[in-house]
Structures are given as structure tokens and as C-alpha cells.
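INTERNAL AUDIT FORM
Audit reference: QA-55
Scope: verify that the stored structure record matches its stored sequence.
Auditor: D.O.
Record contents follow.
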Amino acid sequence: MQLTAKHQEYWQRNLRLTGILLAVWFLVTFALIYGARTLNFNFFGWPFSFWVAAQGALLVYLAIIVFYARYMNRLDREYGVEEGED
């Protein structure tokens, strides 16, 4: 099956977004948490670096999921490939 130019453009935008969001995920998972080790003060009785790792990263992951879902729904509508109502 040969993809049309419209399908290729849709797929390229999807891949670009996925790459950007994976880079954000990597930065939050590894770089931000690695750098948070230097934050040596207590936050509600816990070390702040622990709070960043346990809570802050989860909020960023949730934001990534919400952003991806909304962006892809908009992109699907723009390219006419949205799912129909059942």
C-alpha cells in the first residue's frame, strides 16, 4: 500500500511529537531526578529530592499523556482520520 503525501505528513508529525515527548520523558526520568539529588532540604518531612522523584515526575508523565491525547485528537480531525462514534 502506497501512502499519500497527506498520510506521510500526518505520520511525520506524529513521529516528531513522539520524539519530543520521549525526550521530555527522558529528561524528567534521568536528568531532572539525577540533578534533584543536590536538593538537600526537607519538604513535609521528606527529602525534597525524594518528593521530586515520587510526585513531580508523575505529574509530568500525566501532563505528557494528556498533551499527547489532545494533540493527536486535534491532528486526527485535521487530517480526517478521527475515530467514528459507535
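Auditor finding: record pair retrieved intact. Helices lie at 5-36, 48-79.
Action required: none
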